[in-house]
Amino acid sequence: MADLTAAEPPARPVATARILRVAGPLVELENVGGIAMNDLVLLGAERVPAEVVAITTSRVTVQAYEYTGGLAPGRHGFPLGAPVCARLSPGLLGGVFDGLLRPLTDFGDRLAPGTGTDEPPARRWAFDAAVVKGQEVDEGTVIGEAGNPGGPRTRILVPPGCTGEVTYVADSAEHPEDTVLAVVGGTEIRSVTDWPVRRPRPVRERVPARAPLTTGQRVIDLLFPVARGSTVAVPGGFGTGKTLLLQQIAKWCDADVIVYIGCGERGNEMADVITEFAELTDPRTGGRLADRTVIIANTSNMPMMARETSIHTGATVAEYFRDMGHDVVVIADSTSRWAEALREFASRTGELPAEEGYPAGLASALAAFYERAGAVTTLGAGPGSVTVLGAVSPPGGDLAEPVTAHTERCVRGRWTLDRDLAYARHYPAVSWSHSFSRDTDVLGTGRDGQETAGRRAAVAELLAAADRLADLVELVGVGALPAPERVSVLAGRLIREGLLQQSALSPNDAHCTPAKTAALADAVLAVIERCRSLVASGTPPDVVEQADFTALLRAREEAGPGDAATVRAARDTVLAVLGELR
Amino acid sequence: MSPERTPVEYTSVRELRGPLIVVEGVGGVGWDEFATITLASGERRHGVVLEVRDDLAVVEVLEGTGGMDPAGLRMAFDGRPLTVPVGEGWLGRTCDGRGAPRDGGPPVFGRTSAPVEGMAVNPVRRQPPGEPVLTGIAAVDVLTTLVRGQKLPIFSAAGLPHLELAVQIAAQATTTGERFSVVFAGMGLTHADAFFVQEALAERAAAGELCLLLNTADDPVIERILTPRLALTVAEHLAFDGGRHVLVIMTDMTSYAEALREVSAARGEVPARRAYPGYLYSDLASLYERCGRIVGRPGSVTVLPVLTMPAGDITHPVPDLTGYITEGQIVLARQIHAEGVYPPVDALSSLSRLMRKGAGLGRTRGDHLDVAAQLTAALARARQAGELAELAGESALSPADRRYLAMYPRYLHDFLHQERDRTLALDESLERAWRVLLTLPPGELGMLPTALLDARNSDGSPGAVA
Q: Any chain A CB within 8 A of the CB of B278?
């Protein structure tokens, strides 16, 4: 395991190999030996980074992460003798990076190939030691914290596989990034560490995911909750609000760190996320929302192969923060674009295509990514978790296509976004009939969990009843239904408009605490119950339907994110209105 | 295209297949280099290196390989990817899909040249779009405002007037008070359409505000792949170096995608959905994503692609993948066209995702967003009422629903419909929207601020008592 602790950047080439073939991102070199799978190779004078994907006795095949224009047979590639690594450092929080985790702020207005391989400017971090010389420490022990003064702090850990006595600790002061901060059992520890992106970071053990992640979106927290350490797929056609929903969760969920991977998505959208997060305040810490966020931006016009690594890079960054004992949420938007990069490269290497041209390994590649999620006991013996939310963009909205179909088999939850709901401007357009959460059972324990489960069952039942009746209503009109069914139709409307809809633009309702969610659900259920008993005791259904429910429907907008009292007052207003009906 | 170098010429052609030439014995030729091919007759064609392996180079010929005899071919490589001259010389010109003059003028020269593939804008250097482009079309300006730096496609179907709409936007669009240019790229146009476009845009071209690139349906397929890239390269330079706001109109993207499919099949690539290449999304993104604004630089590139949905199917790969990349869509509908209304924009299926940022107080008008939201909501309700009336009869409607039903024809004829040569100022378009809305009872206009509504009702607007 000693090689894993190498903090020294793998900058020196170990060999020189002649380039034999170039076809877009697919490059073949002669095999000069000493090259391993997944090793990093720099190509040509521009030093275009590439990763080894196949080796034969005479040739090495690499996939290039940047534009290979001008690269010709006869020129040279330089194997670095080390796998493709992510450079993990205190500079991650609040930063924006490309798929190889190079800071995008180091580049100019346009991303010319090779410009990112120059030595980055030296950064300095303020270090506060947490161990003393002579102390015995184990892997995963916190040796201190580093970061910008006043900015977010990152814990520096004893790397995996390293134990022993602390023989040196740096002063608690500002140091350049590559300064040795401590020496443990002969291993030098710096504030930066490189980790191979495709190798999951080790943990002491995986534990069952039991704690809920509060996303701040009612339809999710109430109907399709997600546990910390779980996985969710979010399929949705274009225009269904996939990106907006994920951005809302990135802003308001109660995780410690968010890793937002914009994988093959819109440039303007990323620009928006970057500016918006810098301006927003984290409701939990009072700091900038950007300070708990790492953004990996690989827009759809950036080199396609870097899209493929960006997913693994994001998972590596998430594990890095998990190992410090944080709850991390990885948002990958969109995994379909990542799968397309897999397909593209498979097609260039002449791999036998399976469904729709995707390689046969698609299912296992997806599973391997989602399995990097989990609740764990870290090497430092603390709890930590990585939750993965992956957007899926099914072509033509077809949920039977390979990426959607393979993904939903390996995730714990699915939030399907429905085009009809989106066109009716019902946001978030999470379909209650086509979504599921397998975390409801583990989260339904304890007093809070049981109460939530009860509300969930009641709301789900009413929605199902309303859906069944909806088709009938379209044909014959609501007036032709018997009185109890008319209340069911009314109940569906009250739940949709008063509880499930949530405007991302509303200052009060953009996010919602569990208390307000519970209060709104209880209020809507109480009003429906009263309507039902009124009708049962002979009040004509159209009188009930015409009653003024405005206070209830406006409660979600008028009460602040944590304001249950206003919601209860609205409930009482409507119950009073109903009390006066005859 | 680079006369400064007299490169080595290669003559040993091993294979000719579809648009591809395989030459052997080459040395130092890089991937994606531009090549010039001279036929025995002296005719010159152009190509791009698709693959280099040992001493072999596979070259794709832009003009096609028709009539080529391997014996007399000479190939020279440029040592760099395809570049085009850029600059103001393009304004006022009409060229073919490769940039060669169609207007009888001299070839376009520029002081600098740029690679047609362009380079991706660094996401951290992008400035989020925030000001409108006014098209003079009521339906677009009021309901799906086009924002500078946005990519907003028109989804149409065969037989609908999308080309007319695109040309009208090209002729009318402005950014009030700032330098504005249009680059119009036509791909796979019929000669009749090309003639129509040229004639309709002659005035703007004469004013030096427009560049026309026309690839007709009988031009080589592969040239069609170059046309939008050429247009965007010219536009990027006019915008980010020339400080102009540039609108790039690309029509018809379905023809472009078909050209891409044809070339992909000739290359023997693994097909994906409906035999389009697997990289169709990334390829379209490499075009559409060239729109935007850059921090600290004047100018913007706004992209308006036009595409026809085969058989009106919005789930077809071309509109579907376009929708995933672009920031909204303007959908044209056959039913509205059948009513004789132009432009037949289906407002309920249309959306401009950036409108919230590019319209409203300080950008267009203070009441704009409220009016647009209210009009969209009213249309949704009118459509529901219409569906119910068809099933159960108009007598089954509530009094409010009947008002909505009555509003719909007013919307079509008093708001949506406009003449093909008429530019509506934004104020005028918004007034039209107000007049339609005020046919509804005030209680139904909950999305409009009360103060605005009171002001309208008290000044005795004609619609107020309708």
A: yes
